[in-house]
Amino acid sequence: xxxxxxxxxxxxxxxxxxxxxxxxxxxxxxxxxxxxxxxxxxxxxxxxxxxxxxxxxxxxxxxxxxxxxxxxxxxxxxxxxxxxxxxxxxxxxxxxxxxxxxxxxxxxxxxxxxxxxxxxxxxxxxxxxxxxxxxxxxxxxxxxxxxxxxxxxxxxxxxxxxxxxxxxxxxxxxxxxxxxxxxxxxxxxxxxxxxxxxxxxxxxxxxxxxxxxxxxxxxxxxxxxxxxxxxxxxxxxxxxxxxxxxxxxxxxxxxxxxxxxxxxxxxxxxxxxxxxxxxxxxxxxxxxxxxxxxx
Length: 295
Hints:
- This protein is of the alpha/beta class.
- 49% of the residues lie in helices and 14% in strands.
């Protein structure tokens, strides 16, 4: 197959990611943004704009712990007088609650998503996690719905390791629909962990084609889910390989590709010490990678 990628254009796109994420544009609108943020606010006013905190969040996730981040700002403020350096306690408190929105995307009318989950490690505190949560492995699970065509994130949920994958299909589909401005989810790819009557019934009600690997011994009778039984009969008739080819089941790997990108750039280990901190750090990793893909 001929490689049609424009490598010069692709290389420039990768370079631009760093340029935009380390942009100092927040300095230009510092006062104006603070004025808007503090309008009608009760209690202590904000001292630092959200755009500045987004900048710090990326630096923290990609490079620096909180205390080193304070030192970085001190040094940077010597060269940029308008930059007001924040202390690490302020940075910690703001980033703990910061929200990163899903970037607006140009999507097709009928969206096809790949749903999957992956585990993220919790630094060297596996023993602490096992004791705190009473779990076996001490890691958390990240559940996503990725647009098969654009390879971008449409839904994200984070849980502990005890949450089964199958239970997360419905909230992921609902969130993906919301983040795509209510557009219809035409089809959903998922592996056998999502094979359940409830999930097939839900997707049927949503008008979403279920491209889910069904267990080999699945009943071809309705038994509470005509939609699942129909797929079971189809696989029995054309065989699993025929079913894979018909529905291009390999497109499910869009989710795996997204996981790989996040772990390659930001790592798969969280540095945070609290349960809430771990969840927030991992969430920011996935959302920042999604922004990188949108640049």
